[in-house]
Specification:
By secondary structure, the chain is of the alpha+beta class. It contains 16 helices and 18 strands. Strands 1, 2, 3, 4, 5, 6 and 7 form a 7-stranded antiparallel beta sheet that branches. A hairpin with a 5-residue loop joins β12 and β13. α4 packs antiparallel against α5, α4 runs antiparallel to α9 and α5 runs parallel beside α10. The longest helix has 31 residues. The radius of gyration is 33 Å and the shape is elongated. The two termini are 56 Å apart. The relative contact order is 0.09.
């Protein structure tokens, strides 16, 4: 087997030849044994779990806290037991709050690695078997269907209308259509349309791919290495507390030396002056500052946790709090990559759909009044077209939740149908689908053909300007009316306003 560095610029046959694998048979047992020794398991680099003792020790790294430790020791040394006990209570309170909040966040971050345990259908020795993603190797032939999550980087060798959601990798929220043709060597990652990348789900289609990279050699693996190697910097709060600590040390040292010297020069006992100077130094240290700062940060961390934001270092809360501007390309990365239908425009009407957690209690509101979406022909037919011209699916799982598979736009249309009481299964039983014309970027439209009372119903959806361009009539309150150029411009204007 030869090394394969840029599979996207090779044809499928060249990739298979270089990897030394037959697409119909897959890897043999001997191939698996040799490649397992060479490549190891298909796992991302996992950082070593943070020890609880290390998390506890980190609570005492602040210069202010170290000053309190020194103050407690000196208080004991000079028999000021009450002061020493008070400082120790402050230290214990501070470290307990910091430790418990940080260890919860750290363990939550580590648990993210266990959230997804993938399996894949693979062709090995001429048979199709289901394997854990950890067992996959370069050269394995993987069979893909809509809803699958790509288990490793692979060059596609068969593709039927495949689209993948690459938002986690490239930040692009729109599903990416895939093809098989070889690409130019300068093609950027986001445009490598003949590749499927580890961790990206198939939103549509089916096909096969040959694995070209596993583990840390994948694109997502390289990102994880960059994250691991990122240098850690002190937060603004840590810097300010350290700065205060240095100033306090300087001030207390100067005051202590001054008291000792002046007292001794006035004939006081040296030991008494040393004791007095140290007592004043201990008193100058603000015992309450660390615990007040820790409580404030802990409250901030808990409030963010309730909003599903995990922070693995307590002081990082202050960094985010002091941020004034965030510059980022948010597409698909700071959003959930989900869509919902909120407004439906028909002749002279604008119907709003309320967004409730339970589809059954959602309402359709027009001019401030609740309306029956099935009682308005234009509204009903708009919803039915969106449900029929659709390849997504919504299924109920064993635990009572819903599993949505497909393009986010099409899922949104199915959910809007469910809110109106329109089921795709019921519609398909009435209008059996006979043909599908997948979305074509050349015409920006998609269509499904259905049998309907001895004839055919064609459901079309696409870009508004593309659909308007080829439409000849419009359903209005007074019935079907020829669609004039002026009306097309009006509909285009309504679309722009929305």
């Amino acid at each position: 087997m030869k090394e394969l560095k840029e599979p996207y610029k090779c044809s499928g046959e060249e990739v298979l030849e270089t990897l030394g694998v037959n697409a119909q048979k897959g890897l043999s047992e001997e191939d698996v044994r040799v490649r397992t020794l060479r490549y190891g398991k298909n796992l991302l680099k996992k950082s070593k779990p943070k020890s609880p003792w290390l998390i506890l020790a980190n609570q005492f790294k602040s210069l202010i806290v170290l000053l309190l430790v020194v103050a407690a020791v000196l208080s004991f040394a000079f028999s000021d037991i009450a002061e020493a006990i008070a400082i120790i209570i402050v230290l214990l309170l501070n470290s307990t709050i910091g430790f418990t909040t940080e260890i919860k966040a750290v363990r939550s971050m580590e648990a993210l690695h266990e959230l997804v345990r993938l399996s894949a259908r693979v062709r090995r020795g001429g048979r199709t078997v289901e394997l854990s993603s950890q067992e996959l190797l370069p050269g394995d032939i993987v069979i893909l269907e809509a809803g699958d999550i790509v288990p490793a980087d692979m060059r596609l060798i068969k593709a039927s209308r495949i689209e993948t959601d690459e938002s986690s990798l490239t930040g692009e929220s729109v599903p990416v259509p895939k093809k098989l043709t070889a690409l130019h060597e300068d093609t950027t990652l986001a445009e490598r349309s003949n590749m499927a990348f580890m961790g990206t789900p198939l939103t549509r289609g089916s096909g096969e791919g040959v694995i070209t990279a596993t583990g840390i050699s994948t694109e997502i693996g390289r990102i994880s290495l960059l994250v691991e190697s990122a240098s850690k910097e002190s937060t603004p709060l840590e810097k300010r507390l350290d700065s205060l600590g240095y100033k306090l040390i300087a001030a207390t040292v100067v005051i202590t030396v001054f008291i000792i010297i002046t007292g001794t020069l006035r004939g006081r006992e040296l030991f008494l002056m040393i004791e007095t100077g140290i007592a004043l130094a201990v008193a100058a240290i603000p015992e309450g500052l660390p615990v007040v700062a820790t409580i404030a940060l802990a409250r901030g961390m808990m409030r963010m946790a309730r909003r599903n934001a995990l922070i693995n270092r307590l002081s990082a809360v202050e960094t985010l709090g002091s941020t004034g501007v965030i510059c980022t390309d948010k597409t698909g990365t700071l959003t959930e990559n989900k869509m919902s239908v909120e407004l439906i425009a028909t002749d002279g009407s604008l119907t709003k759909i309320t967004q409730a957690q339970n589809a059954e209690v959602s309402q359709f509101i027009e001019d401030g009044h609740v309306v029956d979406p099935l009682g308005d022909e234009a509204l009903r037919r708009s919803i039915e077209v969106g449900v029929l011209c659709n390849t997504a699916s919504i299924t109920d799982t064993a635990d009572g939740s819903q599993q949505n598979i497909g393009d986010p736009l099409e899922i949104a249309l199915l959910l809007a149908g469910a809110k109106a009481g329109v089921s795709r299964q019921e519609l398909i039983s009435r209008y059996p689908e006979t043909k599908l014309e997948a979305f074509d970027t050349r015409v920006n439209m998609m269509a499904t053909f259905h049998k309907a009372n001895g004839s055919y119903l064609v459901a079309v959806k696409g870009a508004p300007d593309s659909v308007l361009r080829v439409s000849s009539s419009v359903l209005m309150s007074k019935g079907v009316t020829p669609l004039t150029d002026e009306m097309k411009r009006e509909w285009g204007k309504r679309n722009d306003e929305l």
